[in-house]
Write a structure and sequence with these properties.
The complex is a heterodimer.
Chain A: H1 3-24, H2 27-50, H3 55-80, H4 85-88, H5 90-93, H6 99-129, H7 137-162, H8 173-182, H9 186-191, H10 193-200, H11 211-231
Helix pairs in contact in A: 1-3, 1-6, 2-3, 2-6, 3-6, 3-7, 3-8, 6-7, 6-11, 7-10, 7-11, 10-11
Chain B: E1 5-15, E2 27-36, E3 38-43, H1 50-57, E4 65-70, H2 79-82, E5 85-88, H3 100-110, H4 117-124, H5 140-152, E6 159-163, H6 174-186, E7 190-195, H7 198-204, E8 207-212, E9 215-221, E10 233-241, H8 243-251, E11 256-263, E12 272-278, H9 281-295, E13 298-304, H10 309-323
Parallel strand pairs in B: 3-7, 3-8, 5-6, 6-7
Antiparallel strand pairs in B: 1-2, 1-4, 8-9, 10-12, 10-13, 11-12
Helix pairs in contact in B: 3-4, 8-9
Classes of the chains: A mainly alpha, B alpha/beta.
Chain lengths: 241, 348
């Protein structure tokens, strides 16, 4: 790759990254984040009040089964709107930025923001839900937060990749439905974020996967599907009647 | 002057999404083009496919069928060729950013220029005041002006597509736009202007192409000759004095089909403008000149006005009707058989 090509790639990815951040610097994102945080904290409070023993485990189970997947789905929806990533970045690629690299930057921004937001929501929940027994607060806080970051990133990559299918990006619903229906166990659980996240939290391991393998799977799917979304974004689609 | 083809379109089918809910307002069907450098005005309404043509030529959308090539490259696939194409779209599509200058900086960075070129782009059309404005606060006309500035400042441009560049655009001096178009043309660019105004097309284009129902139906030189018959010519006179006397005199001429006038001052017979539709342009012009002398009126200027799109479409329909082969007349029905009456008046 020549210097000019490298420069063009770097510029395109930077433009895509900025594009993604600009899309998420929006009232809707803050509203959805507030809602997710409220639901998580209220749930944590309730669990703590019922009985403080095991309250953290119950809180995290609910959050990773319900709050995290839906929160990230909403974030990706805000970032992409009702469009495929390639169509969305037309505002930049029409001036000459390569489509794939720009989309990669866009997806990277969505994945990063989703991961960070999930980390914050879960971290605050841990602070509220932590009760008697179990590991110390700092240890639980660190563990739950990095699991949330990895899981949020994986979900964002899945939904972004799904959005490259069907008109208006409707394909992002498919991984959401699959994750809820079959994502907890078996082969689907081994590749979808739900099963791997629950494994890292100490719940059932899909296909007997080791926790380290689940970590690797979350990272690998975040990277592979993010790149996959970019590779599928070579050019805009034509309008159909 | 190079005759090398810049824009090549073959069997093109495409549609826009400008209608409600993303539906289509118009489409192009089976369009074929091979254009060298020059300025081309495509006249038509959105329903005739001007929006669809604009979007597909710029690579914003992929054609449903057929190909578009700019210097041999398809715009929707080739980012290097898109970097050398300027576009002013029906609805502005600027990169999202907090301020106008940052948005323009992203656009110029995408086409390989330094971000500092953004200031020069805005200054080229006198839009410096918009630089620090929030992008979302720009009106439709202002956003179009920014997009026009970006299009006309495309470095080493090969194709520039402008949709209604003189309509609803917040530029103080449209003469600057004309100058920039001429400069791009001299540098070898192919400039495509899509518009529903024959006036705008005539003001800038070297060739005019009429669109109708998704097809390119006919063409004309840039001065609009032949768009409508000479019998539909309009003369517009700017009268300094003697408006009413002149109007009375020309109203009696057979060559004048209709006229209207507007006084510029309170005097009935003072200054104003007089608009005449004449059945023959040359005879009409000669007769009007003679009338000016007879009534001792004074005129400052006169011109022929460009035909309206309604007139152009009417002429297009007329030409299509004239070209359509005449249908054979249906056979006349056989006359009914009536028996002759018998001698006493009763029928057999």
């Amino acid at each position: 790759m020549s210097d000019a090509s490298r420069s063009s790639t770097a510029v395109a990815m930077t433009l895509g990254w900025r594009f993604g951040l600009a899309r998420l610097r929006h009232r809707a994102f803050f509203a959805v984040s507030g809602l997710a945080l409220s639901v998580a904290l209220v749930g944590a409070l309730i669990e703590r009040r019922v009985t403080s023993s095991g309250s953290l485990d119950r809180t995290l189970e609910v959050e990773f089964r319900l709050v995290v997947p839906l929160f990230v789905f909403a974030v990706v929806g805000i970032a992409l709107g009702r469009r495929q990533p390639a169509t969305l970045v037309t505002r930049v690629t029409r001036f000459g930025a390569p489509s794939r690299e720009t989309t990669l930057g866009l997806v990277a921004a969505i994945v990063a923001v989703s991961a960070l937001a999930c980390g914050v929501v879960v971290a605050l929940s841990v602070l509220v839900a932590h009760g008697h027994g179990g590991a110390s607060l700092p240890s639980e806080l660190f563990t739950a937060t990095w699991i949330a970051v990895l899981t949020g990133a994986a979900y964002a990559a899945w939904y972004s990749f799904g959005a490259t299918f069907f008109r208006r990006g409707g394909g992002r619903v498919v991984p959401l439905v699959l994750d809820f229906v079959v994502g907890g166990a078996g082969f689907a659980g081994a590749i979808l974020p739900r099963g791997n996240a629950l494994n890292l939290l100490g719940f059932d391991a899909p296909m007997g996967l080791a926790q380290r393998a689940s970590s690797v799977m979350l990272v690998a799917t975040a990277v592979a599907l993010g790149v996959g979304a970019a590779l599928r974004s070579r050019s805009p689609t034509s309008h159909r009647g | 002057m190079s005759d090398r083809v810049v824009l090549e379109v073959e069997g093109l089918y495409a549609q826009d999404s400008a209608g409600p809910g993303g539906s289509s307002r118009g489409r192009v069907q089976g369009v074929r083009l091979a254009l060298p450098a020059g300025v081309y005005g495509f006249i038509g309404t959105p329903e005739d496919g001007t929006l669809a043509l604009c979007e597909v030529l710029t690579g914003i959308v992929r054609p449903s069928r057929g190909t578009v090539r700019v210097r041999g490259h398809e715009p929707y696939r080739s980012s290097p060729i898109r970097a050398r194409m300027g576009a002013m779209l029906p609805v502005p599509m600027l990169p999202p950013a907090s301020t106008t200058e940052r948005s323009v900086a992203q656009a110029v960075a995408a086409r390989g220029e330094p971000a500092s070129a953004a200031k020069e782009v805005l200054a080229s059309l006198g839009l410096e005041a918009l630089a620090r404005r929030r992008l979302k606060s720009l009106s439709f006309g202002e956003a179009r002006a920014v997009e026009l500035a970006l299009a006309l400042s495309t470095p080493r441009a090969v194709l520039v597509v402008l949709h209604e560049p003189f309509l609803d655009v917040a530029v103080d001096h449209l003469a600057t736009v004309h100058e920039r178009i001429r400069a791009l043309r001299e540098d070898g660019a192919c400039i495509v202007v899509t518009t529903s105004s024959a006036v705008d097309a005539r003001s800038v284009a070297e060739f005019i192409i009429v669109m109708h129902a998704g097809a390119l139906v006919r063409d004309a030189p840039g001065d609009g000759t032949g768009l409508v018959p000479a019998s539909h010519a309009d003369l517009v006179l700017t009268v300094r004095s003697g408006l009413r006397r002149l109007a009375e005199r020309v109203s009696r001429m057979n060559v004048v089909a209709s006229l209207s006038w507007q006084s510029a001052d309170e005097e009935d017979d003072g200054a104003g403008s007089l608009r005449l539709r004449v059945t023959d342009l040359e005879r009409g012009a000669a007769n009007v000149l003679a009338a000016v002398g007879m009534v001792d009126a004074e005129i400052d200027a006169w011109s022929t006005s460009a035909p309206s799109l309604v007139d152009v479409r009417a002429e297009t329909r007329r030409l299509h009707q004239a070209r359509r082969p005449a249908r054979p007349a249906p056979p006349s029905p056989a006359p009914p058989r009536v028996a002759p009456p018998v001698a006493d008046g009763r029928r057999a």
